[in-house]
Amino acid sequence: MRIDKIDAYVVRLPLKKEMRLADIPLHYIDSVFVRLISGDDVGWGEVMPGNEPVLTAAWSNSVFLCLKDSLIPRIARDQTINSSSRLEEIVSQIRGNRHAKGVIDMAWWDLYARKQRKPLHQVLGGTRRQLPLGLTFDRMESREDFIAELHRAEDDGFRRVTLKIRPGWDINMLSAVRAGFPRLMIQCDVEGALSMTSHSDTIYRFDDFFPLMLEQPLSAREYVGHAMLQDTLRVPICLDESVTSYHEAEIVIDLRSASVICLNGGRIGGLTTAKAVHDLCVSGEVLCYSGCTYLSSVGYRHVAALASLPNCVYPVDYLRVDEVLEADPGVPLPTSMVDLNETDLNCEIKGYTDTRVADLWDEPGIGFDPDMNIIEKYAISHFQWP
Fold first, then answer.
1. Residue among 1, 8, 277 at smallest CA distance from 124
2. CA distance 265 to 271
C-alpha cells in the first residue's frame, strides 16, 4: 500500500461548555488529525493528549512537531507500507511519543480497511455490532446539578458512569451517589492521585460502595503497589496511565497488578499495539475496556472499533459530542435502547433490562469522510507532505 500524501493538523475545536481534564478547566480542545492518501483512498486518525502536558507528558503541539519533524519524513522515505508491523518498524526508530505514533497507526488502519472495503471494526477483529455505553462525570460546582446529570444519564439508558475522584470530591460524593443510585455501575477514576502512605484510609473505603472498578488509584509506575492493592481489595483495579506499551501490559499481567486494562488507542501507540495488548489480556485472563478523553467523532470511531473486540466486556466511554463540541468534523455513532433479555451483548451490565448502545457501521473504514471545511476552519497548524 503506497502512501502518496500525508497531512497533519492541529485543530482547535471550541467547546459549548466548560469541561475538565486532569481537573483543569477546558474551553477548547486541540485535537491532532492525520490524513493518509493512497490512490483514491483516504485514512484518518485523531488523538487528543491534552492542550498541555497535564495528564501525560504529551500534548497536542508536541505530537504535531514529532509528526512533522520525525515520523512523517521517515514514512516519506519508505512509502510502501503493506502491514501494520511494517509501520511499527518504521516509527520504532523514535523513542516514546506514543500519541504521535498512534495517530499515524490509526490513519493507516482506516486506510487499510477502506482498501479492503470493510468497516474498521471488522478488519480489526471485532465481534460486536452494538456497544453498551458509559458516561464520565467530573466534579461540579453544584451538587444539585451533579445529581441531576446522573439521573438524566440513568434515564437515558447509560448504565455505567465514571466518576472522577478529586480532593474533597471522594468518599462523601460516592456515598451520596450510591445511596441515590443503588443499581448504577460506578467506575471510580483516580488518575493516579493517591498513595499507599498518605491515603490508605481513603483507598480501602472504595470497597464499601461496590464500584465496577477502581481506575488508576496510584501513580503510573506503581506496579507493585497496585498488585498489593489488588490482592487486598474486592473491587477490580483497572490500569490506564500505567499501560502505554505492550511491555508494560506484560508487567501488569505478570505481577497481577490489575484485573482490567484500559485500551486507550492514543496513549498506547495506536490500534496495532492496543490489539496486541487485548490479545495478551485474553491469555492472561485480564479483562479490557475501551476508553478515551475528549475527541471528535473521527477519533471516536477508533475507540468504538477497539470496544468491539471480544475481551472488551465493559461499556465503552462515550461523549455526547453534540452537547460538547461547537463543531464536529465527523459523524456521531447512532445510539438506541435495547432490551438485554433479547440480545447477547456479552457485557458486565447487571440489574437492568434495557441499556443504551451504539450501533456500529457497515461502511468501509471509519464509515465517513470528515468535513474538511470544519478541519480547515479551526486548524491552527498544518503540515503537508509532499
1. 277
2. 6
